[in-house]
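The authors assume throughout that readers already know how a fold can be written as discrete tokens. What matters is that the chain and its backbone geometry are given together, residue for residue. A single example would do more here than another paragraph of explanation. For illustration, here is how one protein appears when written out as sequence plus structure tokens.
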Amino acid sequence: MAVKKRLIITLDGPAGAGKSTVAHGLARRLGITYLDTGAMYRALTFKALRLGIDLSDEKALTALIKKTRIGFKQMPDGSLRVTLDGKDVEKDIRSPEVTNKTFYAARAAGVRKIMVAQQKAIGKGQSLVSDGRDQGTVVFPKATYKFYVDADFEERLQRRLRDLKAAGEPVDANQLRADMQDRDNKDFSRAVGPLKKAEDAITIDSTGLTVEGTVDKIMRYIKPL
């Protein structure tokens, strides 16, 4: 589909719902930029862990983000690959340790304020598909299209297990189940930028669907521009 006007599409939803791979596939299908906002919080978490910063100290995290350069480099497929202080950290930020501790950065009001401003700036003047937890509610409340991507918890769990095994990461299914349940609770209940469906968002249930099948389902709602 040829996009002639600025198009902002948001995909929000819980961990393991497939929204990141779906958002990437959707952006590729439309020929526009894909923004993985979760990678920004992961990058800051990775740096904090590396520096031995107390992740529960919101002031320390906010001070850290103010002297940290989180950027993106455009890839041939239209995606934006995250960089930390000029270094590509895409692989480093996907570890289970970073995944399980990113909620500290995500719940810090000072960090989130800066991240949201950066995300808004990236979306200014260009078409993109952005995924995260608060894209349709906070970052791009006037997005052209808003989707809330969800899936049955057991399927989300199995997807995450497959992803970790494919990445060669050691994984315990029972521990991962507990981690995902804990992450869901934190995402839905945090005071700043909680995960919730925007009132005007379209729910997309990806249970039983492939990535391409989910993209096809979303594309049915998108009108040519």
Strands lie at 8-12, 33-36, 70-74, 80-84, 87-88, 128-132, 145-150, 202-205.
